Amino acid sequence: MFFDPLYIIIIAPALLLALYAQIKVKSAYNKWSRIGTSRGITGAQAARMILDRSGLSDVPVEVTQGWLSDHYDPKNRVLRLSPGVYQSPSIAAAGIAAHEAGHALQHQAGYLALKMRNAIVPTAQIGSWLAFPMIFIGIFLSLKGLALAGFILFMAIVLFQIITLPVELNASSRAKKVIADLGIIQGQEEAAGVSSVLSAAAMTYVAATVTALAQLLYFALRLGLIGGRRRD
Asked: Which of 15, 17, 106, 222 is 20 to 30 A (C-alpha) from 212?
């Protein structure tokens, strides 16, 4: 099964989409990270302005290590930005910082999809550790129960990816509106740059969801859950 042509047929289009999404992200970020906003506002300042305007002055904005490792931590209520975003007054930094601040606004508003995603995180984490070993060992040793248990755990990963899509798209929508309202970006070119960066980032989440669904389809076929029972 480790060289199953069916796996290649199912997963290859999703992997190509993921590769294309990564190329788009790097291209958009590299372009717009070299172009500054007319007001010269850094990513950290943009995030701070958005949080303060929304009554979230108690949410700190911290710098974290890594390339595009920006995220909002709902458990500790901390917004963390990578060095390239935190310190930069670029259009890309403004868009990314605003996007992460958008997650803080979702948290404040009790956005349902975010609540659902946060609730499923522990199960999805367990699935990311155990699903593949359980499925592979179960199939290899003909332990159908073990493989099915792994399949169920993998379904939690797929569900997490599906729920993540509206969360990320909504955060980007909030970001585009709030940075325009606050005047962090000005003019059509800056708005287009922010949109380009956030749209490219959204594509990576689409690709991750498609990849997870493709893998789920393969495992369902391999375990005989759909399309009849496969023979090894």
From this structure: 106
